[in-house]
Structure formats: C-alpha cells, structure tokens
Amino acid sequence: MGKEYSKEKLVDAILSGDECKLDKFLEQHPELTNVPLTGGNTNPICRASFLGKRSMIAILLKHGGDINIRCGGKGNTGLMWAAWRNYSRTIEFLIDKGADVEITNFNGETALDISIYRMSYESALLLK
C-alpha cells in the first residue's frame, strides 16, 4: 500500500466516524498518526477536531497523536479549529485530554482569541 493511498484510507476512516476502522488502521500504520495531510494543510488531529469527531480524536491520541500538533499556514492546533467551529464539546474534550489553551498560532492567536473573533461565546467561556 503506497503512502498516499494510506493517507487517503486514514482520512476516509476519520470522515466515516467508524471507530473500529480507524483503530485497526492505526494499529497497522502507527507512523501515520501525526502525518501531514492534503499537502501539509492539515493532519489527523486537526481534521478530526475541525469535524468535531471526539471519538476519532480519542483513537488518534491512543495511538500517539500529538494533541498540540500544528497544521496549515497559520499553525493552528486542533483546539483552535474546534474553537473556530464553536464545537464546545470538542473543546472540553481536548482540554480534558491536555490540549494547551495558551499555545499561539503563527499570528500570535490563542484558541480564545479565535473564539472571540468568531463570536463563539460559549467556546470563549470554556477557554478563558
């Protein structure tokens, strides 16, 4: 299985929300847990956070996922993407799992700053 094909299978497993599928895939390919996806614009943790898929994040963390890994041109983390989307339950989950609320992206913004900018007040309350 080629590396690009493996990345496609990883993305498919995350998008499907199938916990067993993702768990089995990462058991066979643990080296892909933190791999850059879509030309380096994202990674598994950021993609799952952007989609609000807490169960997928949990499986990625189980297989060595870096909860504070950066992605994209701004260097956002999964917590920042959850804040961008106002996914309060995902924000709570990420914080409970050890996400750094003080980390800044390449523009100097924290997840709280992003929540305020997006007028995501429920998220901002969780991040303050």
From TrEMBL:
Q: What InterPro entries has UniProt attached to this entry?
A: Ankyrin_rpt, Ankyrin_rpt-contain_sf
| Keyword DNA-binding assigned | no
Entry GO CC: nucleus
The record's keywords, sorted A to Z, are: ANK repeat
The ANK repeats are at 74-106
Tell me which Gene3D superfamilies the record gives.
Answer: Ankyrin repeat-containing domain
Q: Write down what this protein is called.
A: Ankyrin repeat domain-containing protein
Q: Which organism is it from?
A: Euplotes crassus
Q: In the record, what lineage is assigned to the organism producing the protein?
A: Eukaryota, Sar, Alveolata, Ciliophora, Intramacronucleata
